[in-house]
User: Fold this.
Amino acid sequence: MKPVEPQERAAKAPPPRRGRSAAFGFVFATAVMNAVSFGLMIPVLPNLVRSFFGGADAAATASAADWQFVFGVTWGLMQFVSGPLLGLLSDRYGRRPVMLISILGLGADFLFMAFAPSLPWLLIGRIFNGLTASSISTANAYVADITAPEARARRFGWLGAAFSVGFLLGPAAGGFLATIPVHIGPLALASLRTPFVVAAGLCAVNWVYGLIVLPESLPPERRLRAVDWRKANPLASLALLRSHADLLPLAGVNFLFLLACQVLPNIFVLYTTLRYHWSLPFLGATFIATGVLGILVQSFVVAPTVGRLGQQGAVILGSTAGMLGFLIFALAPTSSVYFVGMPLFALSGLIQPGLQGLMTVRVTGAEQGRLQGANQSLGGVSAILGPTLFPNTFAWALRHAPLVPGLPILIASALLAACAALTARFGARRSSLSAPG
Assistant:
């Protein structure tokens, strides 16, 4: 009798058992803790980098932007290389061990940031984190494992809300902690290092929590029988995106969205502190407002929007609103005008839930890890191009076109306009494959 291949076995697998649906609560809590630990460094790391140049003027800011480019490209390259391998390993051995490895890598990165005596040591931490970081992509595969296709957009919205909660608490706490110096025995750390010590501790708690509490979502009978190392090649892994009808255009939308999202992590703190003179506490308050808006959108807007407009409509609406929000951010002459764009930009939270819903139903259960690994590779490419494009554009604008400091944000706005156009063109097409939860 002909043996059943893993993909065929996954296609015949039954829907998720009700008991396993409760596991979403565990991955939700893990996502919150991970986002809190990551959010702690957002308002602090750019200023830590800038501190190595001894000032906060335009020259030091431009130099810090140059190093943001180095950090971002290095991290993205590591993601591009490791993403497919981690996705395959999660399809073969389960999601749980890959998530635990990712948390350890993030914790090690924070320790490097806390104690690094120079910028090259900070770079080593980013390399280590980039090689192991896959918590978001593995969490997406986890959700796909335990959720029926028709309910995935709502679950992905809740997962997005978990990250919004983390980014609400993390940056605010980071801004506060950055005012408190740390003394560990004879070792004294500057206050800018404190958030990283706390973040490393949160990662340790998160890892222990996952080790003890988090159940595995992928049962042995639905796993790959063996790892095909040829598919671990980052370029070969992208072949999956061409192997199912209509998946490649959606991957293009995902890539453009991820690239646009690179603009704020790369220049937001430098941009707003220079143009609007925001302090660290004010940045923390702004992150709180952004997090609250994100939670409201993910918790109360995603499901009704998907129900009324469908997943394609949700992506188009989110892309259009994000485009307008970016446009306001780029052109706002004052803080008050900048804040007008925040509610509009918050609606970009519709993009990922709708897009993940559209993409996950086009692959089988045994391919969810590969899909998320390929998406992570795209994220790695965006993380290479984003720091190449946005900080360099920002530094160029400061040196040569100071009247247009928001130029990189204008570029991000154009990318989201392209997302809306591509989704309108290709999002309605469906393949005949419907992957089980």
